[in-house]
Task: inverse folding
């Protein structure tokens, strides 16, 4: 069935709505959904040109981390080094928390000799990806709810059209939208924050 905003149970006065797929305790579900809502609002403030594709990518990374990426060590390092050479150095903070223990590490704030360590952290983070489709769909339901309240820079019909299409494809990983890439030039890796702290000081 197509994703739709969740309906609030009649016997609760909570502002956070619960998905019938969510089997967590109410307090845990409320906390997680509030965290997702805050994450979406923070990214909207930072990146006001984000589109449904970019919001989907953010929640996909939060749920699944880097587990969908290629795990060949040589290829990982080669791509990192190549991307680093093309990355414009900025004063953007190097770390951006996205939840579930994952962070985005922006290459623009790193030194050249830190890139091999980031590659190692990236590879070690892959087994930490333990997300699930039901959990991801719950996050997307929160996205729909926040969008319907007018707090995102795109409309609900646009988001529903994107989500219905991407669901039929099996929820694949996606790139950032062209407007997002042109405006913000994102160049980062999603890694486990705990492992990052063990191998790289940023």
Result:
């Amino acid at each position: 069935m197509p994703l739709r905003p969740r309906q609030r149970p009649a016997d609760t006065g909570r502002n956070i709505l619960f998905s019938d797929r969510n089997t967590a305790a109410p307090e845990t579900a409320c906390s997680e959904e509030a965290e997702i809502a805050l994450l979406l609002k923070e990214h909207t403030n930072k990146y006001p040109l984000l589109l449904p594709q970019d919001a989907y990518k953010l929640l996909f990374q939060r749920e699944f981390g880097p587990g969908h990426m290629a795990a060949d060590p040589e290829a990982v390092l080669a791509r990192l080094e190549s991307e680093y050479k093309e990355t414009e150095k900025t004063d953007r903070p190097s770390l951006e928390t996205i939840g579930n223990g994952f962070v985005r590490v922006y290459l623009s704030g790193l030194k050249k000799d830190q890139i091999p360590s980031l590659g190692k952290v990236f590879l070690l983070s892959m087994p930490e990806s333990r997300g699930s489709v039901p959990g991801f769909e719950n996050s997307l339901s929160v996205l729909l709810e926040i969008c319907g309240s007018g707090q995102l820079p795109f409309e609900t019909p646009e988001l529903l059209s994107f989500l219905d299409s991407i669901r039929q494809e099996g929820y694949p990983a996606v790139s950032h939208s062209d407007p997002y890439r042109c405006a913000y030039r994102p160049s980062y890796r999603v890694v486990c924050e705990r492992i990052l702290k063990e191998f790289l000081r940023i």
Remarks:
- Residues 26-46 form the longest helix (21 residues).
- The chain has one domain: 26-199.
